[in-house]
Prior knowledge:
This protein is an alpha/beta fold. It folds into two domains: 240 residues, Aspartate Aminotransferase, domain 2 (3-Layer(aba) Sandwich); 103 residues, Aspartate Aminotransferase, domain 1 (Alpha-Beta Complex). It is 34% helix and 16% strand. The chain contains nine helices and 14 strands. The strands form four sheets. Strands 2-10-9-8-5-3-4 form a seven-stranded mixed β-sheet, with helices on both faces. The longest helix is centred in the C-terminal third of the chain and has 21 residues. The radius of gyration is 21 Å and the shape is globular. The site of pyridoxal-5'-phosphate has 12 residues, from helix 3.
Amino acid sequence: xxxxxxxxxxxxxxxxxxxxxxxxxxxxxxxxxxxxxxxxxxxxxxxxxxxxxxxxxxxxxxxxxxxxxxxxxxxxxxxxxxxxxxxxxxxxxxxxxxxxxxxxxxxxxxxxxxxxxxxxxxxxxxxxxxxxxxxxxxxxxxxxxxxxxxxxxxxxxxxxxxxxxxxxxxxxxxxxxxxxxxxxxxxxxxxxxxxxxxxxxxxxxxxxxxxxxxxxxxxxxxxxxxxxxxxxxxxxxxxxxxxxxxxxxxxxxxxxxxxxxxxxxxxxxxxxxxxxxxxxxxxxxxxxxxxxxxxxxxxxxxxxxxxxxxxxxxxxxxxxxxxxxxxxxxxxxxxxxxxxxxxxxxxxxxxxxxxxxxxxxx
Length: 362
Ligand SMILES: *Cc1c(COP(=O)(O)O)cnc(C)c1O
């Protein structure tokens, strides 16, 4: 099969076709280098240029100033659940966590191993169908940091404005909405994200860290778990995933070429609105999981009147070339993940398909 399907998977997820084609063309030899990105030394001049340009392009896309460093690490976003508390817990040895879904709970589980944790707010009793409001957050002004998950990949909810935390550094797991819109990066102490949703292949984690926070990283930490050591070594303390960083670089250039994050947001919002509008006009045949003001523009979760109809729709969409729409078991139903690289045309075609399905089955 040479034909590409519409890939609605939550992650690893669709990448821009232009990026895949460029990587394919240059996979045998990087132009002028005589070898592949898969074979090149991470200490070579060529790779230096690739990693430095990728860092600079990410900084420019996110309007990040030189008070921040960008690290390219391994171990996924999941290792950050441990690295964040291990590195940032001093000096106060207590941190605030906002719980909005399965990934926040996993972050919480690891942080609890390190120190006392205050749960600032949780929407678990509402099956994580919404994001808490600022007034609901019981923040501790003396906490070492506040951790939140900007987009809840499984439940399909998203923060449309980050929580206000005063002088307490804000730490964000942005794995599933990084680079989907402009954010005010200067409000954050740390932003981390696994690459495989919106940036590149699995195997690289991007960590954006305000440089003054590196002072908190204790020398007693294991070297590979210490942000300061990775920062001092330009993310080359050990062998990085050269291929992963190379693809993140190509994706960054693709974003810049296509108008940057404001344009990306506009398109992402349009794509998500096409789906939500279909649900809202469906007489409750399609029901979104997220309450309207918490809806994600990256992961659109929805249910049908019965599980039987859901199964039928998943089978029919898969057969028609719409892949990966089965929802996560904790929410059920369907989930359309429509990251940056997902084409608007695919969303329009899916909605046509949904409307036809409804008329045949209601
Ligand atoms: C996918 C995901 C993770 C886990 O990422 P890994 O790279 O597999 O560790 C963490 N947080 C969020 C929000 C995610 O979407």
